[in-house]
Every structure is written in C-alpha cells, then in structure tokens.
Amino acid sequence: MADSLQPSILGTKEHWDEVYAEELDNFEEIGDEGEIWFGEESVEKMVEWAIENAPSSSLPSTVEIGTGNGTLLFALADEGYAISHLSGTDYSHGAVELARKIAVKHDQDIAFNVSDFLREDPPLLPHMKPAEDGVWDLVLDKGTFDAIALSEKDEDGKSPASKYPGRVSEILKPGGCFLITSCNFTEEELQALFSSSSTRLMYHSRIEHPTFEFGGKKGSIVSSVAFQKIGLE
C-alpha cells in the first residue's frame, strides 16, 4: 500500500532542507513562523483528541515525529501540557533550528532534536529511563509518514515507509497511543498499515474531519487515526 505511491521530491531530505532554510530566513527577517502543515484546524483537532485521550494531568511523555516548526507541540503547551514532557524530532537541521528559535520567542523550552526516526530512537527527556518495550506515552505524526511514503524505493521496490509502523511500536510503551494525520492514506488504509499482531498497535479511535463528495463517494482531505499499543500476554 505504501509501496504503491510513486517517489516524489516531497520524499527527499534535500527538499525539506531547502524549505526550512527559506522559512528560517523568513522568521529571522519578518518573524513568520512558517507553514502549518494541514492547516490550523488539523492541529486543533489533534490537540482536542489529546486532551480527551491523553490529558495533560496524566503528564504523558509525548514525542512528535517530523515536528517541522513545532506548531503541534506549541499548541499542546498552550493547553497546559508540561513542557518538560514534550519532545519534537526532525531529520532536517533547518526544521529543528526554526522550532528552537520559535520556542525562544514564545518562552517555551520544548526539546527539539535532529533525529532520523527510521534509523535512531528519539532522544529521551531528562525524566525518562530506557525500557525494552517502549518509553513514550504519546507519539504524534502530522504528515511525516506521508513524506516518507514518497521516498525512493529500495532495489526490491519497497518504500522506507514499510519500516515505520514497527518503529512506532518500538518506542511506544504498552498502553500508549499513536495519533497520525495523513493526506495520502484513508482511515482504512492507515488501519491496514499500522494495526497488526507484530506491531501490537490496535485501532483506538478516529478524528472527524470535514467531508466532501465526488463521483458518488464521500471522503475528506485528511484522515486522523489513533492506535493503542497492547501489552504482551
């Protein structure tokens, strides 16, 4: 399914480095904090889901994969989530530099780190300790899986995205949740890609997005699905 998408410039690190280099320049020149991927409404809906399912009072250790300019994490902080428990990673140095500068502007000392999720685990926060079966209570993705699915395939025709569900499972603790928003995959496709006995990621819930009708079929511009990792029996 993820292998069916054709590679695109949106799946290259070079593209995102160029994007964030330009956004960094804009921020330093005019204070523009950059594009909100999928728009403000998607951010608001993901935050609302978190408030209901992983409330700030539970102090969830939260990491966003492919954080970009950090918009989603800043929105969580604005809703009372402990900054000491929020982390954002991105493989683009420019994205992390931009997020860090925005954090200084808003006096929100969220941890932002350069990290290639398919190759290395997100750095732990100071209060966290390593664990064999995952350490994060909440893992967030807003468009990152989409971009990875547009990367070049290997010699066997497999997309790097095929490794992604397993990586999510590795870092998520049992009982923890993974919330993903995608514009390339439907809810049904996301469930088929992520939920399996090997990942132990079971369907938890979905976010309702505005729908449109075309050719007699209903759909939405983005899909948001949450999965919960079940423990070993």
List strands and helices in order, with pairings.
Layout: H1 13-30, H2 39-53, E1 62-65, H3 71-78, E2 86-90, H4 93-105, E3 111-114, E4 136-142, H5 144-149, H6 164-171, E5 172-182, H7 187-194, E6 201-207, E7 211-214, E8 217-220, E9 223-229
Parallel strand pairs: 1-2, 1-4, 2-3, 4-5
Antiparallel strand pairs: 5-9, 6-9, 7-8
Describe the overall structure.
- The chain has 233 residues and is an alpha/beta fold.
- The chain has helices at 13-30, 39-53, 71-78, 93-105, 144-149, 164-171, 187-194, and strands at residues 62-65, 86-90, 111-114, 136-142, 172-182, 201-207, 211-214, 217-220, 223-229.
- The strands form 2 sheets. Strands 3-2-1-4-5-9-6 form a 7-stranded mixed beta sheet, sandwiched between helices. Strands 7-8 form a two-stranded antiparallel ribbon.
- Strand 7 and strand 8 (217-220) form a beta hairpin.
- Helix 1 runs parallel beside helix 4 and helix 2 (39-53) crosses helix 3.
- The protein starts with 12 loop residues before the first helix and ends with a strand.
- The relative contact order is 0.16.
